[in-house]
TrEMBL record:
The lineage of its organism: Bacteria, Candidatus Nomuraibacteriota. It comes from the Bacteria. InterPro entries: Ribosomal_uL15, Ribosomal_uL15/eL18, Ribosomal_uL15/eL18_sf, Ribosomal_uL15_bac-type. The keyword Metal-binding does not apply. Residues 1-12 have a biased composition (Basic and acidic residues). Residues 13-27, 53-63 have a biased composition (Basic residues). GO terms for biological process: translation. This is Large ribosomal subunit protein uL15. GO terms for molecular function: rRNA binding; structural constituent of ribosome.
C-alpha cells in the first residue's frame, strides 16, 4: 500500500454557499446597512466625550486635593486646667500629649469649652480661643499674651 492509495475516513466539508459570494456570508462581517456598513466607520469612544466635557484644574500642582489651610486641633478647657503649669503654649501641650504633631510640624491649636475653671491660666501667643472659653479664662483671672 502506498500513500496515494490511502482513503479518507471523513470527506471534506463543503463551504456553505452564499448568494453574494465571499467567505463570510451575507454582510461579510460588516453588520447591517448604512454608516456601519461602510469602510472607515469607527464610532467615537463615549468615555472620551465625557472626559472632554470636564473642566481642567490648571495651576494647582500635583497635590491639588490637599487643603491650603493648616489643620487646627481643638483642645478642651478641662484638659488644659488639669495641667500642672499655668503658662500654656503649644510645646507644653505637645509634651503633655494633649496634641500631636501633624506631618512633623506643630499644629495650630484652638481652646474650646464652656466648663467653669478656677485656675489662672496664661495663654501664649499663637493659640486661638473660642468666645466661651475666653470669657471663662478671663473670669478665673487668666491672661492672654
Amino acid at each position: 500500500m502506498q500513500i496515494h492509495n490511502v482513503k479518507k475516513e471523513n470527506p471534506n466539508k463543503k463551504a456553505r454557499q452564499v448568494g453574494r459570494g465571499g467567505h463570510r456570508g451575507k454582510t461579510s462581517g460588516r453588520g447591517g446597512k448604512g454608516q456601519t456598513a461602510r469602510a472607515g466607520n469607527k464610532p467615537r469612544p463615549q468615555m472620551r466625550d465625557i472626559i472632554k466635557k470636564l473642566p481642567k484644574l490648571r495651576g494647582r500642582g500635583k497635590n491639588s486635593l490637599k487643603t491650603v489651610e493648616a489643620n487646627v486641633q481643638s483642645v478642651s478647657l478641662l484638659a488644659i486646667a488639669s495641667l500642672n503649669t499655668e503658662i500654656i503654649n503649644r510645646d507644653i501641650l505637645l509634651k503633655s500629649s494633649i496634641i500631636k504633631r501633624d506631618a512633623g510640624k506643630l499644629p495650630q491649636v484652638k481652646i474650646v469649652g464652656n466648663t467653669p475653671i478656677s485656675k489662672k491660666l496664661i495663654i501664649a501667643k499663637g493659640i486661638r480661643v473660642s468666645k466661651g472659653a475666653k470669657e471663662i479664662i478671663e473670669k478665673a483671672g487668666g491672661q492672654f499674651k
